[in-house]
Amino acid sequence: MTDLLHKKLIIPSLCVLGAGPGDPELLTIKGYKALQKADVILYDNLANKELLSIAASSCEHIFVGKKPYGDSVSQEQIHELIKYYAFSKGNVVRLKGGDPFIFGRGFEEVIYARMHGIETQYIPDISSMQAIGFSDIPLTHRGVSESIWAITGTKKDGSLSADLQLAMKSKATVVIYMGMRRLHEIVKTYTEAGIGSTPAAIIQHASMPQQRKVICEVKDLQLNALKSGLDHPAIIVIGKVVSIAGVVPATGMQLDTLLFQHSLNYQQAV
């Protein structure tokens, strides 16, 4: 009788929660409270495991990570786990690295849950592209970059997004997610367009003490990545904002001179 009563009290729910770019202190207060209430946490490969300790001792932790180019739990399996635990346990938190709605397939899980009568909630967090600020690289800077173009380096069919061809013609900061296996193609695309000298960076673990990065011209990205042993997961940033990192201590005049020179180089290239 008690078991039957317990089952009647279960309200199936799913919270798709952003874990941020790595540093557990970047979790939102709302996200912290959601973890405290979780009955089950389905967490991925990029979510900091320290966040699991926020949940109650009775909370079940289940790894459903997708390791790039390796063994992983399929999206269909994750959907089934969401449904199973929502109806058998109640409050499921889907903990995903970065922000779940930026190349995180988070909304696919929301749609699936709603189709099966499961209440849903979305809690955003900092995406990895925002964490490049820890390397003194702003996504935008007045007079340098007035827009951002975020691109996936790995589409559903495994190819690089054709949007890169459009993005590189603009003055936008270009951010490429999941692009490390497409470095050769990215470098070739920029070089063949005559803008291989565009400043670029690869940053891994952007918000963590073990952060690693290379800063160079885009034409040298692949070579420098190999020399430094940088691989996935990492974020690729291309644009004049990358140059600002090296002159932050400089005077305003020196910064203006540097940016003016980059502007001349870019105009000559195109």
Verbal overview:
By secondary structure, this protein is an alpha/beta fold. The chain folds into two domains: 10-123, Cobalt-precorrin-4 Transmethylase, domain 1 (3-Layer(aba) Sandwich); 130-269, Tetrapyrrole methylase, C-terminal domain (Methyltransferase, Cobalt-precorrin-4 Transmethylase, Domain 2, 2-Layer Sandwich). The chain contains nine helices and ten strands. It has helices spanning 2-9, 29-36, 75-88, 106-115, 163-167, 183-192, 221-228, 241-244, 252-269, and strands at 13-18, 40-43, 60-63, 91-96, 119-123, 148-152, 173-177, 199-204, 212-217, 235-238. The chain has a five-stranded parallel beta sheet with strand order 3-2-4-1-5, with helices on both faces. It has a five-stranded mixed beta sheet with strand order 6-7-10-8-9. Helix 5 (163-167) links the parallel strand 6 (148-152) and strand 7 (173-177). It is elongated. It starts with a helix and ends with a helix.
Structural class, from secondary structure content?
alpha/beta
Distance separating the two termini = 75 Å
Helix content: 25-40%
Q: Ranges with pLDDT <50 over ≥5 residues?
A: 264-270
**Share of β-strand residues:** 15-25%
The number of domains: 2
| Strand runs, count | 10
The CATH homologous superfamily name of the largest domain equals Tetrapyrrole methylase, C-terminal domain
Identify the CATH architecture of the largest domain: 2-Layer Sandwich
Radius of gyration: 21 Å
Shape field: elongated
